[in-house]
Amino acid sequence: MPKKKTSSQNPRSAKKKQVKKRPAKAKVKTSFKAKAVARKSGKISKSSPKSKGKKFTGFLEILRNLKSSFGSGFVNFKAKIFNSQKKSVQAKKRDRQSLINFLTLIIHVCVHLSVFFIPLFFIPITYSPLELNKLLIFIVFLFIGTLACLIKGFVQAELKIKKPFFSIPILLFLLFYIISIIFSIYPPYGIWGFEGGEGISLLALGCFITFFYLISNNFKEKSSILFLLLNLLISSLFVFFISILQILGLIKFIGAYEKLFNPIGTIFDLAIFFCALFVLALGLFIEKNQDLSIRALSLFGMIMSFIMVSIVNFNFLWLILFFTLTFLTFKRLIKEKGRNIKPLSLPITIILISIIAFFVFQGKSFIPFKDLPTNTNNILPSWNSTIRVLVGAVKQSPWIGVGIGNYDYFYAQYKDPINESFRGTAMESKSYFLTLVSTGGALLGVSYLIIIFFFGYKFLNIALKDRLKIYDPIYNVWVFLSIVLFFYTFSVSVLFLWWFFAALLLALMKDSSGFIKEKNREKRIIIFRVLSLFLLIVFLSFSVFVILKFAKKYTGAYYYQKAFYIIENEKFDQHHLKEALRYAQKSAEFQKQSDNVHALLSEIYWLLAKQEIQQDKVYFTDEEKKYINENIDKAIQNLKLAIQKRPKDFTNYLKLANLNQNIIGLKSGVEDKALENYKKAKELNSNDAFIYNQIAKLYWAKYDRELFEIGEKNFGTVEEVPSSAKENLNKAKENLQKALEINPKSKVTRLMLTSVYETEGQIVKAIETMKENVNIYQDDYRLKLALSLMYYKDRKFGIAADYLQSILDKWDDYLDARFILGACYVYEENPDEAIEHFEIILRQNPNDEDLQNLINELKQDELESAKSIVDQKIQILHERLEEEFIQDEQFKTGIINLNSGIKN
């Protein structure tokens, strides 16, 4: 058997082995510093082979010579310096990382505090206990969080923006928002928001966008996002208990005037908030292989949310929930490709419940709370008015509108004059989207749609592909809220949820990129840090400016609320009015651009003057007259300032006209000024029957005054009505007819018009107008009474008696109707029937001497004397009933305070 050749016997194999060993024998270059440190530590002995290269060997020889000459101190010093430098670099890295971790912690804490407190936080010390106060705490948290984020970027020399192309539609929306405000008829409302509606302001939008980027760029892990959702659930638990206790009337907050006050907004906002949580909890619960703790929390959230949604039972919300869950069910089927549909049994059950709730309960609470409203028209314009305003606004200012926050400008012109004649103004429409289009124009509306569809498309692609258990539930809530904002209005809490869930969806997306990154080049790091330092300085400067401005607004709002609370509670004594004046003056110092503050000051000055006027005095001293005139002048001056601040607001003209109308007889020429201001209000709001009614009243008053002056000159007789008086009466009639065209159902207009016809002697027209009124409002017995009075004056006593008897058949204790019926029997010479009715009235009013005399005259068959007494009492009754009808309308002739934008 031949011997195997060894490596020494086989030159080829030996050559191969040599080739293989060459890389192992190759020496790695080592720096001198590293070797010195190694020698010092004992890893390389002094007798070990010298390093490669004569250059280094010579240098070491020099060091050895220096060592022998000067001792070992220099080498020890060199090694010590190098070690200290190395430790310094490592310490700096550790310190920098510690600082970055600390800044990250601050960002996370600020975001968590925002998520917890925005739904829950309120302070009832301003006119906007929710919106304004939520923005207050939001700004504080965002300022700290954003500052930490910018410092973190400076320390890291890196700024990451997750999916930068998502910023394009957001920045486009922000751009058109700013453009709309720049060209606004009243920019302060666009920048800061109107009273009670701060959620639509530029300030709020800036907060939402900042919050969006804080979450999307600083939350990456599923666990951290789950913790955010848990935080929201805990906050909602507090909201739930506070709202339930408030609805039950077990607690009441100072400044919260309504029993339905809650930390979210209106009772409908509360339902939307909990319905969104219900969608979230449902989505988490049906996810397969979900953690037991998450499923338990989800079940708890579902039960809590369903209870609140059922109590409020917002009918529109069930419909949105139906469409949302139907869409999401189909999405789940597509994603699972028809497999594993068992978890969908719960959403399908909820879909069926929502259908039943929508069609069967019709907005009535499952649990009967009589104080719960069932119709959003109680607080918002109707859909008819919303569409009318939208069409009118787009025609009048199609591209950029009249400015965010100025919805009332278009509402005054295009609202439904019949069904919303009770409303003076409205600051928002039925829908957040339609409010944006109506006030910000088509460009703002299109940019909002771009955000919705761009985000929706991108997020849907991930939802159909991504297997993250948490992604689908968050997407479900975002879709639900997006639909809601197309059909319902805004609040800070609802808009906060929309931006919050959008940010979470973006945070869960994997890819990220940045505009500026560290490329391991010192030059780029220096450039970035210079830029980041510049951004930091700009941010600090801008933030300080905004915070100071907001602090002024908030302080002014605080004092405004204290003054308004005194007036609202009708504390009209001297002490309280002086206190309210002091608060209102302080509010004006902080809110110099607010027309509402000046309007409130005007009302307080007028009340001070009115209080002095209403004292029982035969004459006033010169000092008292001066005091009254000074307060009236200040009231007028403040309303003029309010008009200067916001000249497109018709309500300020109405208030000034009303003030002038109230001081007729105290100052000369105010009657014409009142007419002038009513006409200016009519130019801005030609769609309101109330303004035409007020103009008609003034012309009618001028007619009466002229006849009175003639009567005084002619000893109480007016042989012929002068043409100027007839002209005033005709103008009154024209304005009433115009008011009737705007609102044919207006009771006060018809009553005034019938009185004008009576004054003109056209009794037939007066009766026809009143009969139309009775046919429209068949259940209003007072209208039948007024019609019977007109038949009585026309000497048609039989017809009048029939109407009066129909009233008494339903309202037996209506004494005015019974007296007129008795008067009809007097003129029909049926004293026994008349006496029977008059005696029933006398038993209720035993001290009525005139009625007792009337009965005595009838018993003695003194019919002519009885008729005289009856006519006098009928005239007094007619004047009283006419005054009651006018005062019973929604709009009164006093100073009007129209703040329908206030939600709570």
Structural class: mainly alpha
Query: Strand portion, in percent?
Result: under 5%
**Kindly state the mean pLDDT as a whole number?**
78
Helix content: over 70%
What coarse outline follows from CA principal-axis ratios? elongated
Ends: how far apart? 108 Å
Radius of gyration, CA atoms, in whole angstroms: 41 Å
Low-confidence stretches: 1-63, 69-75, 514-519, 888-904
The tally of helices reads 34
Query: Tell me about the biggest sheet?
Result: 2 strands, antiparallel
Q: How is the largest sheet built, in terms of strand order? A: 1-2
What is the number of beta strands?
A: 2
Give me a quick take on this structure:
The protein is mostly helical and 904 residues long. The protein has helices at residues 11-25, 32-41, 54-70, 73-120, 131-156, 167-182, 187-192, 202-218, 222-247, 267-286, 292-312, 315-336, 345-361, 383-396, 407-414, 432-465, 471-487, 492-508, 522-568, 574-590, 595-613, 622-645, 650-662, 670-684, 689-713, 723-742, 747-760, 763-776, 781-793, 797-810, 815-827, 831-844, 849-859, 863-887, and strands at residues 159-161, 513-516.
